[in-house]
Design brief:
Order of helices and strands: EEHHH
CATH topology: Arc Repressor Mutant, subunit A
CATH architecture: Orthogonal Bundle
Oligomer: single chain
Number of helices: 3
Strand content: 5-15%
Strand order of the largest sheet: 1-2
Largest sheet: 2 strands, antiparallel
CATH class: Mainly Alpha
CATH superfamily: Winged helix-like DNA-binding domain superfamily/Winged helix DNA-binding domain
Number of domains: 1
């Protein structure tokens, strides 16, 4: 799957996967869900976030954990 809304940039959040154009990390979204927050809570708390951003963050994580073959640009 192509992740158009997920970016990795060593200069942003130390290279963690983020929602494109934000400093919202994929792991932040997962941690918020794990803490009991809902999609509505996330959308309210992070106005730059969209439902599609959340879905891609979840899909990205699932694919990474399942396949382990997602290529990310890592700093050298």
């Amino acid at each position: 799957m192509r992740y158009e809304r997920i970016t990795v940039d060593p200069a942003v959040m130390v290279g963690k996967p983020c929602i494109k154009g934000t400093r919202i990390t994929v792991d932040l979204i997962l941690r918020k869900f794990a803490a009991g927050e809902t999609e509505a809570d996330l959308l309210r708390g992070y106005p730059h976030l969209s439902r599609e951003d959340i879905r891609q963050a979840l899909a990205f994580t699932a694919d990474f954990l399942t396949d382990g073959d997602i290529e990310l640009a890592l700093p050298r």
